[in-house]
Specification:
The protein is an alpha/beta fold and 338 residues long. It has helices at residues 6-10, 15-23, 34-46, 72-76, 81-92, 107-113, 127-140, 167-170, 188-206, 280-289, 326-337, and strands spanning 26-30, 50-55, 97-102, 119-122, 144-150, 153-159, 216-221, 226-231, 259-262, 267-270, 293-296, 300-305, 308-313, 318-321. The strands form two sheets. The protein has an eight-stranded mixed β-sheet with strand order 3-2-1-4-5-6-7-8, with helices on both faces. The longest helix has 19 residues, at 188-206. The protein is globular and about 65 Å long.
Length: 338
């Protein structure tokens, strides 16, 4: 172990004791896209004991410009990101325990996974998931690190329950909503800058050097050479997520949608009302009978007809591509699955 991590151990803030702590820790990463794939790679190379990765999507050619774990073969085969990531990460460091989940990072899933983690890293692309994560973090007292980027801009903030303000508090003072979608494009250096901030903070927490943890909200614009570290106000006592009488509002099923427009993708995700497991063989027959061209791998089934493309996952989720209208996407889904 010492040979492999010798340069990291030589860094006095980590040392032998810190490396042992890293090896004994479990990190949960939400999302395996631009941020998540690089975060996962850095943590695996650093010798994290266990990494859990959750993502709902598959690899496309447009990902390859900034998502370093994936290859053209992954995109050609439409491999789910967590499957492609797991294969590559195991080649990088076989000693790390890796667990992957091809599904939504919804409240139910996070309630099951978060209590066993020492730290959660945000690599999602939507605020609904982030708000769920924020409530999960507060409920189970697990630190998490927010990160987002678009264009040449990025930001990050470290949230430690009972110490810092939470994301729900932060939204009252710092406008974050405009940074949830990549319709403005993205350059790879902005991704890597956010990842550097997130993983540096993660390593401080993993080695338990909490005095070194940054207590400011970081914002930067690489293209226009701007960098700001904004002081985050103290926790709000009336906050429903981290205040004196928390109700964790974003864990309420009534506040969670069953459909979501995917950022910059002209795609809508539709989830079934109840949990299910699709039989791809039967579904393929149904789709072919109504004129769809079908291709499949063990993880997903893709159906195309008249410029309409739908990708089904085994848990009943579907991505309706070429569509931003939620009502139309839901109607297409219901026409096929009822």
């Amino acid at each position: 172990m010492n040979d492999r991590y010798s340069r990291q151990i030589l860094f006095s803030a980590i040392g032998e004791a810190g490396q042992t702590k890293i090896r004994d820790k479990h990190v949960l990463v939400l999302g395996a896209g631009a941020l998540g794939s690089s975060i996962a790679e850095m943590l695996v190379r650093a010798g994290i004991g266990k990494l859990t990765l959750i993502d709902r999507d598959y690899v496309e050619f447009s990902n390859l410009q900034r998502q370093h774990l994936y290859t053209e073969a992954d995109a050609s085969n439409k491999l789910p990101k967590v499957i492609a990531a797991e294969r590559r990460l195991r080649e990088i460091n076989a000693d790390v325990k890796i667990e992957v989940h091809l599904t939504d990072a919804d409240a139910e899933r996070l309630e099951a996974l978060a209590p066993g983690a020492d730290l959660i890293l945000d690599a999602t692309d939507n605020f609904e998931t982030r708000m769920i994560l924020n409530d999960i973090s507060q409920k189970y007292q697990v630190p998490w690190i927010y990160g987002a980027c678009v264009g040449g801009v990025g930001m990050s903030f470290t949230i430690i329950p009972k110490v810092t303000s939470c994301l729900n508090c932060l939204l009252k003072t710092i406008p974050l909503q405009g940074m949830t979608c990549d319709t403005g494009g993205i350059i790879s250096p902005a991704v890597q800058m956010v990842v550097a901030h997130q993983v540096a903070e993660a390593m401080k927490i993993l080695v338990e050097d909490f005095d070194a943890v940054r207590d400011t909200y970081v914002f930067f614009d690489l293209w226009h050479n701007e960098y700001q570290a904004i002081a985050a106000k103290a926790r709000r006592q009336d906050c429903l997520s981290c205040g004196t009488a928390p109700t964790y509002p974003f864990l309420d099923r009534e506040n969670v949608s069953k459909v979501a427009v995917l950022c910059g993708r002209d795609s809508v995700q539709v989830r079934p009302r109840e949990a299910m497991k699709l039989d791809f063989k039967k579904l393929s027959s149904v789709l072919e009978a109504i004129g769809y061209q079908v291709t499949a791998n063990p993880f997903l089934l893709s159906a195309e007809k008249d410029h309409e493309r739908i990708v089904f996952f085994q848990d009943g989720r579907a991505l309706v591509h070429g569509q931003k209208d939620i009502a139309k996407a839901r109607a297409i889904y219901q026409r096929i699955l009822g």
